[in-house]
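Let's study a protein:

===
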Amino acid sequence: MLVHEIDISIEEILASPITPSTVNWALPITIWNPTMNSIFKRIVAAAAIALAAVGIAQADAPKEIRLDYAYYSPPSLVLKRFGWLEQDLKAENIPVKWVLSAGSNRALEYLNSGSIDFGSTAGLAAVLSKANGNPIKGIYIYSRPEWTALVVPKDSPIKSIKDLKGKKVAATKGTDPFLFLLRSLHAEGLKKSDIEHVALQHADGRAALEQGKVDAWAGLDPLMAASEVEAGSKMIYRNVAYNTYGFLNVTEKFARDHPDHVRKVIAAYEKARKWIIANPDETARIISEEAKLSLPVAKLQLTRNDFKNSVPGEEHVKAFKSAGSILIEEELVKKGTDVNKVIEELIEPSFAKAVVR
């Protein structure tokens, strides 16, 4: 309506007679002539069009952009460190707010409550959250990680998944490690009811494992890498296919109201992704400093990330659909939920396709 109304006003201005009496405040009558009349019309029209453009830009511009950063998302740490997004938005005077996410579950809670606009999560965790009503879109792949596995203390007699039957296993509900645990159990004919699940946030799960309070832990990097290096913890089961992709999600409202700024955020993430590929040692140092971990731990975490493909698409749809059955079998979603439809509604590649080259 803004553009339409201004277009009408321009037409009205151009159609109106402009005489010396209407502009005697600006032009002496002695210099007024038809040529000046034409020039004045063009100036007024150009000014109106410029005002229209400014109005449109202001309507699309958010007051601030709120993003999470997470130790399991190296691009978010790099982007936060160098302030590239802040630089890109400086001309528009849009501030950037960073919020720490301790896990996918926290990022998804923040998105659902409107505390952040962009959140870093595991892909399958995002599917689960959207299936349960979280209005989000998965718009970018920040990495393809192997960030979770089943871990036991260094002296544990547990050697396999089947040995976990009847044991205490820590995992953060609603996250990739939790879903990894469930899929691993199912692959061996076990269910969640065959173990004693201890719901702990990732850092608390590591502590419980090393203190002997649980028998196993579905870990998450970089905490898992730290437990390996510093406590000698052992992985008893790894499966990169059960690790779902690192997704950058945006609220549907922000995507609808500010599509240009969604693309600007993705462009900043792309800059960080390419920088990481070119500077792995410096990236490890940033992870080490941000997460307060030793450099060897940060380097180990980084080796378990693939930063090649950042555009969500059929590869991810297929991977999620093959994993979606676990959400139904373990009754993590409402009965009758069409998980395949949820997956298709979650993944939105158009923003990344417009940016990634």
